[in-house]
Amino acid sequence: MARSRRTSRRPHGRRRRATTALLVTALGLGGGLATCPASAAPAPAHRPAATARLAPPSFRLADIPMKDGTVLKADVFTPAPGTPGADRKGHYPLVVQPASWGQNDLEYVAQGKQLAAAGYLAVTYTVRGFWRSGGEVDVAGPKDVSDVSSVIDWALAHTPADRQRIGMVGLSLGGGLTLMGAAFDPRIKAVAAMSGWGDLTNSLYSGGTRHLQAAALLAAIQAPTGRRSPEYARMLAALFDGRDMPKVVRWADTRSPATYVNRINAHGTAVFLAHAWGDSFFNPSQLTAFYQRLTGPKRLELRPGDHATQELTSLLGLDNPTWKSARRWLDQHLKGTGGDRGLRQSVDLEVRPNGHHESYPDWRAISSRTAHLRLGGPGPLETGALGGTAAGTGWHKSVVGGTDSGADGGIALLAGALDQVAALPPTVLVPLLPRRSAAVWQSAPYAAAQHLRGAARVHTQVTAAASEGTVFGYLYDVNALGVGKLISHAPQSWSGKQPGRAFPLDVSLFTTAYDLPAGHRLALVLDTKDPMYGGRTPRGSGVTFGSTTADPAELALPLR
């Protein structure tokens, strides 16, 4: 089993960092982060030779023309003369930074200045369709991908950028674009994608279920600063209405780095991925699946939080572990520096809720065994069996479909952020959950801590009164008072089933790393409505969960 590394964390420091992240998230939703030009004052034109090495990087605004005539607004940060990192011709490694969804080129002012001071030529730009850049929002489509290469072309022609040392760094939309750039431009040697996506289809439609709350928030963030293309407007309307979903899937597939992972592998691009366990826009499971398909140099870091809450403090110029790791990754793969201090090609996990860190050589090493807990009838969930019925016997449990039990995934952007701030994910009183709307199984208290690592999976038989429907699975950490804190959840939909006939259903919960304390219980809840998603179960229709001797229902838990 892989050796783990654990580090302690001061609670007051954690709260301070997390509170700042929440504030920045709120500012980001209002566009405040992208309107801070005071931080981008140009460097003085002349400095005495004796202090040249201490001179700040230069900064200038630029208009960069694209192949179709669209002009993108950009910032250029150039190292001061004499800054270490240049080759013999005075060329510096280039780092291209596309702005996040709804933000502009000034988003990365603090990072651009820091990169230039460290010997990088940094070009940050507003993605087409947003703010003062021309064109219409393309959502990492063919035009956006072509723009990445055009920005690189411009930088090589108009700045002292080294064509042999090109990297990209991005957050959110910028993170998705860095990976798409790696797939389509072999000149890019290293990328750092933070809170981005590997699979946009899985992010918007995992388990065949529309992630409506996240899509609505993304649309709301885009509306004040972006101009929708007709294609994007059609796909968004179809997603909200639940129609033409095969077209939406094809549209999202073309914008998914996972579709082109073989190109990234062929290019040998060094890929750094950072993500949050509770990212309500781009779930962590789609990213870990993408990571496992990469064959070149790669590293994955996962921490508690929601979309972009782990990284945003750096945009204020504050110290940030995620951005620090991204910089070290660039140092290794663009400058060849780092030595023993360089980042390993590995997986680094910050475990919930205690903040311990563990490192593994690859994703498969994070769990060493799987516990299979049988689901039984109503009653306590015991070691080896969930419920009071003997393992392997038949049972069924019915709920009224389309009704909310109160067990939910939380509120997008807030649920994961509260987990980061106060170790307070979505919480329920398990004994009070209405059995009319939810099927509930609960374990006896565990004598020893249980270390969950990976994606738990629920298998059951479903008999429904309607031909289509949706099940939501929730796994809770339950204390002695019956308070359940959400460990993980996920939706799973079905269609085209014969009403009244049982069929098998698997629900793969979103991946996580969670330590269940000794003395606590596990609770599994299945229901058919969650405000975060667009479910298919008709309100009032019957849904029955069951098990047979030939096909027993179970919860599979990956453990370390």
Automatic annotation (TrEMBL):
UniProtKB keywords: Hydrolase, Signal
Full protein name: CocE/NonD family hydrolase
PANTHER family found in the cross-reference section: DIENELACTONE HYDROLASE DOMAIN-CONTAINING PROTEIN-RELATED (PTHR22946), POLYKETIDE TRANSFERASE AF380 (PTHR22946:SF9)
Signal peptide region: 1-40
Record family assignment: Belongs to the AB hydrolase superfamily.
Family annotation (InterPro entries): AB_hydrolase_fold, FrsA_esterase, Galactose-bd-like_sf, Xaa-Pro-like_dom, Xaa-Pro_dipept_C
Pfam families, alphabetized: Peptidase_S15, PepX_C
Domain Xaa-Pro dipeptidyl-peptidase C-terminal, residue spans: 327-558
Entry's Gene Ontology molecular function annotations: hydrolase activity
